[in-house]
Amino acid sequence: MTTVVTPAPDVETASLQYEPHELDAAPSPLLRFLPVYERDFRGHLLRARSLWDASQTRLRDAEQLLSEMVRTRAGAAAKGQTWAWVALQPRSRRWSMR
Description:
The chain is mainly α.
């Protein structure tokens, strides 16, 4: 079985840095907070996208591991059935198959 380690999500902080905005000098405190809310929203959006990408990668890895497990179990079952079939054959026929 293969173990896959997925790195932790990486949030880009460059776009979260403060940039002056024209509403910073607005007379209303509600207008002054709009750029702050927008920056927070962008930060949450970046984090959500990062988590989404990481979860999709983990899901693909889990699907791959599951298919490997199914193939392994199917191979073991086929081998067991083959040995069971051989054991049921008459002794004379078993020796002629080798």
